[in-house]
Amino acid sequence: MALTQEQQAIELINRAKRILVATKEHATADTLSAVVALLSFLNADKKQVDAVVPGFVAADLPAFLPKHDNISASVGAMRAFLLSLDVQSIPLGELMYDVKDGKLEITVVPKQGEWTPKDISFKHGEDRYDLIIAIDAPDRASLGALAREHADFLYRTPVINIDRDPGNEHWGQLNLVDLTAVATTEVLFGLFDRWNRHLIDEKIATALLAGMIAKTQSFRTNNVTPKTLQVASQLIAMGAKREEIVHGLWRTRSVPTLKIWGRALSRLEQDRDLGLVWTSLTRQDFVEAGTPSAALDGVVSELVSYAPEAKIVVLIYENETVEKNGVCVTIHAATPHSAQDLGRAFGATGSRERVEFCLTPGQTLIDGTKIVIDRIRETLKATK
After folding, report:
1. Coil, strand, or helix at residue 187?
2. HEC string of 62-115?
3. Rg of the chain's alpha carbons, rounded to an integer?
4. Which of 224, 271, 323, 360 makes a 20 to 30 Å CA pair with 64?
């Protein structure tokens, strides 16, 4: 009998010597929860594993999630480079090395005789990782620098692609994409439950539940199913800390953050026919609120909760260094739309779900808002 995809995933993971967990740029709370849950489970199963979360800052990890030293913002060395010297006939006497002007100089001194160029060879060593598990990554490009700088590694290494987004391109060699799940952590629970349910401790259960709560705004979205509620109930029975999750997600916002959110919500505009929502903020708004533009990351979920029919959310704001960078824009898009397509005309960078770009310095916020929204409207109407 053929193995199911989950069984195949378990076999691949069991055979792997060292695993890399990777996720998309601009990871949200539910994505971080999935990464932490997977790391914790694999560690409990005694697997060697690291994770790369683009832009990750340890201090930003919610308090209800267990800390992991093996989560980094960028991937390190992927494989060694081996230099070989034949010392069978001519033994080695001394070995020295130094770095000069950005170059490594290696000096080898024979005990007797001398070597020739044919005695030296070089080659790449084995990859540091022999398996990749992608979390919440709809395509390779969404992995950011990992995809841009190590594309060959992604193609030569098996990938288990775990997601719940219908926009996922099934780009892995093995794809666990469950469209009926509300969050990737719900998909992970199914995998863990079939693999070894006894490894799901209190911390893992909390991380799994956190992803589901964050993704559904505490089970208020319209895609919550009876299965979702059943899984949540099982996780709570396993020790998941629901109150800690809710407190960490929504009851720890600073006053400055709430102020800037309030200003963004007060200027909310909407095109219901296109599923488009946008808002704008001036540099003075950030000054008076006493918060940097980084606080905008949490605004999107609030905007969506106020306008759940919105498929595209656009934040347009004057950067802290507005004289140099001008007006900056963040576009968030949900399936079937692509933020990359919507921002392509502006040279935007990012993933299918989120892109960023800045307009020409000197552009006013009012004019910039009109240019961006008009272009997005044109693009959306052209694809209808």
Report:
1. helix
2. CCCCCCCCCEECCCCCCEEEEEEECCCCCCEEEEEEEEECCEEEEEEEECCCCC
3. 25
4. 224
Structure tokens at 323: 């004289």
What CATH topology corresponds to 5-74+129-249? inorganic pyrophosphatase (n-terminal core) (3.90.1640)
Model confidence at 251: pLDDT above 90: no
Residues 6+ apart with CB under 8 A from 132: 19, 20, 21, 22, 154, 157, 158, 159, 160
Domain at 255-383, CATH from 3.40.50.1000, 3.10.310.30, 1.10.10.1150, 1.10.1200.10: 3.10.310.30
Q: CB-based contacts of 57: which residues, under 8 Å, 6+ apart?
A: 73
- Sign, CA torsion 29/265/217/225: negative
3-class SS of residue 131? strand
- d(C-alpha 23, C-alpha 75), whole Å: 12
pLDDT digits (tens, 9 = 90+) for 13-61: 999 999 999 998 878 888 999 999 999 999 999 999 999 998 888 877 8
Phi, psi of 109 (to 5 degrees): -120, 120
Can you tell me the distance from the alpha carbon of 42 to that of 200, in angstroms, rounded to the nearest whole number? 10
- Read off the tokens for 22: 């990777």
How far is residue 355's CA from residue 376's CA, in Å, rounded to a whole number?
Answer: 13
Task: Tell me the residue type at 206.
Answer: T
Give, in order, the Cα–Cα distances in Å from 334 to each of 138, 168, 329, 339.
11, 11, 17, 8
